[in-house]
Amino acid sequence: MNPIVVLTFAMALGFAAVHLFVGNLAFLDVVPRSRWLSFAGGVAVGYVFLHIMPELGAHGAAFAASTGFAPPVAEAMVYALALAGLALFYGTERAIVVSRGERRTTEGRDRPAHGMFRLHIGASALLIFIIAYLLNHREDESLPGLALYFGAMVLHFATADYGTRNHHPELYHRQGRWILAAATLAGWAAGLMFALPALVVGSLFAFVGGGIVLVVLKEELPEERRSYFLPFLGGAALYAALAIGELYLVT
């Protein structure tokens, strides 16, 4: 079997393990917010700005060639897809927060409605499916690039799953984590079976970038999170150093 396929399968299993076992990481369940979650958020944002965003510019050329639009228009379309990813996850988060507030007022239960759980897990599973698919279809196919992708996404999943579990603790443990783990392995398998056109892969990269930015920032920015700036900055700076070091070695 192709060694890269074995490696990406091991990485997909690592992603799935985060979904399944993040609830067992007791050191994350502290008040104020764990510094490790802020560090993980910084790494994920660093990945977006130092890998995904530059690649969007490259995919703009593929859009221009495939659609016939002028390069500025094609590039704007790529970034519009990133905006769509951000908007989708913002809308999902707002719906959950509103539902949680309504139930707190009317029923005294600090939980969103069950329909919101399905919406939240569905949107998260979509993002996770795409991220796992891209394990086998990335612009940067080098081993260091793949390792950086894996590290950034593992930390992103820890942050995102912690937030999901906070909204739906019982349902996440019983159902949600298994759905997300299954979405991970399904995305990896789809990456082996289907090689999508460059235009579609570029669209997926853009969508993922917008989604990750929203998920990370909504976990870090609200005042009640009591998050930490220095660990967030440290995670972003560490990832930036690794990414720039990789580019230096490659070039």
What does this structure look like?
By secondary structure, the protein is mainly alpha-helical. It has one domain (34-250). Helices cover 81% and strands 0% of the residues. It has eight helices and no strands. The protein has helices at 3-21, 35-67, 71-106, 114-133, 143-167, 169-193, 198-220, 229-250. α5 packs antiparallel against α8 (229-250). The longest helix has 36 residues, at 71-106. The protein is globular, with a radius of gyration of 18 Å. It starts with a helix and ends with a helix. The relative contact order is 0.21. The model has no long low-confidence stretch (mean pLDDT 82).
Q: What distance lies between the first and last C-alpha atoms, to the nearest angstrom?
A: 30 Å
Strand content: under 5%
Shape: globular
What is the total domain count? 1
Helicity level, as a percent range? over 70%
Instruction: Please report the total strand number as a whole number.
Output: 0
**Helix and strand composition category:** mainly alpha
Low-confidence stretches: none
The rounded Rg comes to: 18 Å
Biggest sheet, in brief?
none
Compute the number of helices: 8
Query: What is the H/E string?
Result: HHHHHHHH
What is the averaged pLDDT score? Answer: 82
